[in-house]
Amino acid sequence: MKANSDVRYGFTNQFLLASALFARRCKEIEHDHPDNPDGRIRIEHRGLVVAAIMQSVAAVETEAAELVMYGPEHHLGSTAANAEARKFLTPIAEVIDGRGRDVLQRYALILHLLRKPPLKKGEPPWQNMATLVELRNELVHYKSKWRSEMERSGSRFDHFQQLRLPKPPFIGGAGQNFFPHQCLSAACGAWSVRTAAAFLNAVDERLEVESRLTAIMGEFAGL
Fold it and tell me: Is this structure's pTM higher than 0.85?
């Protein structure tokens, strides 16, 4: 007889831990090159901020799938309550992940179906996460525009601008669009990680389970 073990790997923590590393590297670049870094350094810096944003959102998206497929306590082991939640959610996974439904809507539906308190729209951590998703979407579907066009395009970045995150020290204000030049900073990368972590912690709090981030929260200290 030969015994086979079956294992699986979740990317939630990987995405957030990598994003934290990216944000810290951006902070180092801004410290070491406050005035006029060369093109290669600028490319590295901006690329790392973009990666931190995208992977922070990816962590929240992949965790939604984990909840549906394996239950709210999937990271804590098997319990009767988790098995029951999984049995309820898994058959309607395609409905929850429906076409046109964004990640925040998926979480709202999961909490509703499990009869848990909702996250309040327009308030943290929901609003911050919505802003982060919007920023990610702008990068994924980026279309180059003149500054005058960006200024006429409405209030897409109003909430993000209200955060008043420091811009990269080597980026001037005059003649530089807020997006992408001024907003893609080390502070933005760090905020992305904190935002995603706060959202996931809030979801687990409403699900009444220990956060899957408990063991790694120390890695985000100082961001």
Answer: yes
